[in-house]
Task: structure prediction
Amino acid sequence: MKNFPSPFTLVADTLDCAVTDVSAESELGELPEWDSMGHLNIMMALEDQYGITLNEKSVEKYRKMENIINLYNELVG
Result:
């Protein structure tokens, strides 16, 4: 079983902010670092770290931490 980084760590590391800045309610535009470019970087990190392929629909879906957390939970079972 692959050891996936927690969604909070993945997002914080990608945005170069503190893990404590990222909450389950965080979303695109809420954190200064989570702008359109930050979102693109998060999407690339999700693909790289979680081994998934994203499309336009999923890029929209993962604008919210809640959905990134759900993805993580599905992957770790």
